[in-house]
Amino acid sequence: MLFANSANASLLGVSKAELEGRTTQQLLDEKIFSNSVILEVIRQKKQISKISYNYHTRLTVLATATPIFDDVGNVKYVFNNVRDITALNELQNSLKSKDTIIQQQSRQLESMRIRLGEGTIIANSKAFNEVITLAQRVAAFDGATVLILGESGTGKEIISELIVNNSPRKDWPYLQVNCGAIPENLIESELFGYEKGAFTGADNKGHKGLFEAANGGTVFLDEIGDLPLHMQVKLLRVLQQKKVTRVGGTEPIALDVRVIAATNRNLEQMVREGTFREDLYYRLNVVSIFIPPLRERREDIIPLINHFLMVENQKYHTNKSIYSDTIDAFEGYCWPGNVRELENLLENLVITTPGDIIRRENLPLKLRRPQQVSAEEEEETVSLKSVVERAEYAAIERAIEKYGSIRKAAAALDVNPSTITRKMQLYKDMSSRKQNK
Asked: Where in this chain does the record put each Sigma-54 factor interaction domain (predicted)?
């Protein structure tokens, strides 16, 4: 090598003096780099570009070598231009990895679907599959009351439907009511019915209540935690006696009804506070099913995106898809509204995004930036956050140093390469902000 500039030496991780006067084969033998474009140019006598890996700096470079000929057509010199493409290469691998994941998820989507009467359950995560397994097992015991717990939007209604569709009562009535949506003065007559003339404005033929209308089938009492205390007493009596008496009536009506209740509230705490009856709580809680929030089962996010996109594309006769580097924003968001929030957002994006590809810039701001905390929360948690961030960054640095690339480090740490890239950038941005304060 006749001459090497400092930039080239820096990319190779050696000094200029170690390069100049040495042959390319010597540098190859000493494993300075993985292959040589210069030797190829000498053999083929034409300009060649080649990707090479530098062992000292662990960088991936694109080398373009151009031959310079003498008067008789022999290669006299070779001019070699080297560019660092590590970041580009890692980004490409990350996008390929993400595209592969999306394709695999799409192929697996059919096997994840559990079809119901009105909806579909997408189950990829271990946590949600355990919920489904328990619901299917409970379904066969059609006399047992079931209490479904979980945050708003996690899918309590659809788990109730899954239980019904797998139970001996699946061909009998299935009636649902939101206990928090009925005015307090009407809830008794809605649940238990009324006789003619029971109150001013009552139908002169009387009226069947929800329980009587669902006789032989299932009643789903959503938001059971919103049921007023005086109605809790009456519901308990119905569950214990398996009989209902209409408002204004005297004759009890025998019932054969399965009850499934659901709430996003902490009933145990309500029992301690005296706002929910303890005896009713234990009567409802024969079998409880807890549905974890979406932030605790992130493996379901990509399959859910694929499913909702398919549904919305069919609904609006569109052909929208999500750009692969946008998926990270969905996976990094905390989803306080759970599956319902994700579904509503996908419908919004299908409607509002121009063109057929949904990109990061089309997402609402809350998905495009890290989750914010209040000043009080930040002051309380900054020390712990700082420790966690430093530990993550140190682990990432060690893995990259040990394995030589972001892709291999990601495999060792059991995360996506894009996750490492994002965390490194977030740490650098935070460090930069601290220095500028």
From this structure: 121-351
For 314-368, give the CATH class. mainly alpha
Architecture of domain 6-84: 2-Layer Sandwich (3.30)
The predicted-structure confidence for 102-116, as pLDDT tens digits, reads as follows: 555 555 444 445 544
Q: What is the pLDDT of residues 311-347, one digit of tens each?
A: 999 999 999 988 776 888 898 888 999 999 999 999 9
Rounded distance between C-alpha atoms, residue 366 and residue 348, angstroms: 14
CATH architecture of 126-294: 3-Layer(aba) Sandwich (3.40)
Task: Specify the long-range contacts of residues 301-305, CB closer than 8 Å, at least 24 apart.
Answer: 301/330, 301/331, 301/335, 301/342, 302/101, 302/102, 302/105, 302/124, 302/327, 302/330, 302/331, 303/105, 303/108, 303/109, 303/112, 303/122, 303/124, 304/122, 304/339, 304/342, 304/343, 305/330, 305/342, 305/346
DSSP state of 245: -
pTM for the model stands at 0.60
* Separation of alpha carbons 152 and 337, rounded Å: 7
- Please state, in angstroms and rounded to a whole number, the distance separating the CA atoms of residues 382 and 225: 36
CA distance linking residue 84 with residue 68, whole number of Å: 24
Confidence tier at 377 by pLDDT (50, 70, 90)? very low
CA dihedral (377, 380, 386, 391) in degrees, to 10, reads: -100
Distance in angstroms (rounded) separating the CA atoms of residues 162 and 136: 7
Sequence-distant (≥ 6) Cβ neighbours of residue 346 within 8 angstroms: 305, 308, 309, 312
- Close Cβ partners of 392 (under 8 Å, ≥ 6 residues apart): 423, 427
d(CA 253, CA 211): 10
**Cα–Cα distance between 85 and 60 in angstroms, integer?**
6
